[in-house]
Amino acid sequence: MNGPEIHISFAPRLGLFVAARHRAGRSAVVTDGASTLGHVVESLGVPLTEAGRLLVDGRPVTPAHVPAAGEHVEVLGVERPQPVPGAPLRFLLDVHLGTLARRLRLLGVDAAYESEDIGDPALAAWSARERRVLLSRDRGLLRRRELWAGAYVYSDQPDEQLRDVLERFAPRLAPWKRCTACNGPLTDADKEAVRERLEQGTRRTYDVFAQCTECDRVYWRGAHHARLEAIVENALREFGGAAA
């Protein structure tokens, strides 16, 4: 670029997206004089999904603002909890976030997920079509203009990923109400009605069952229930204000 020079600073949380020279307070950036502030911010590495308020010389502006010479731009982080207006809060997760998808579903959060890699254009179109917040660790995917809304998942550890999403969006929690396999709603199931789908040991040991109304999968409190219950209890203890 060869145009007006501006000065820009990023919130500390955004430091992982930008080059080292932009992490320590205000730094100089030369623009082309025509690009919007949103384009400048993304060209420096920050997806607009992660940028909160944009301030120019202390006043709020939109991403459509065209920076002028000498302006000081502050890029703040997103507000937490982050409001998502215009649709029921629901998510779409990319192919790399299967464990997070299952844990969100365990807590009753609407979390769409496809285990096959359907590609960035299809994910962006899905987000727009169903008005879902796309969760991803792919910065390029989050820059796609077709997205309805998106959010970067900051950790690669499932426990931390779950906490990040629950803290950022404060979804309503309704544990044990959603199928972890397909995201469909669960309903109580009579043991006799599902008997033929159970192994002999399960029929002998358990009496309480639930079944997905979409994929027909049957659930009971089996060997893994204690581990799943710990995930639920930890989430409710920390984010229980949003629980059903």
Automatic annotation (TrEMBL):
Q: Which InterPro entries match?
A: Mut7-C_RNAse_dom, Ub_Mut7C
Q: Which top-level group of life is the source organism from? A: Bacteria
Q: Which Pfam families match?
A: Mut7-C, Ub-Mut7C
Mut7-C RNAse domain boundaries: 90-231
Residues in a coiled coil are none
The Ubiquitin Mut7-C domain, residue ranges: 4-81
Q: What is this protein called?
A: Mut7-C RNAse domain-containing protein
Q: Which organism is it from?
A: Streptomyces lavendulocolor
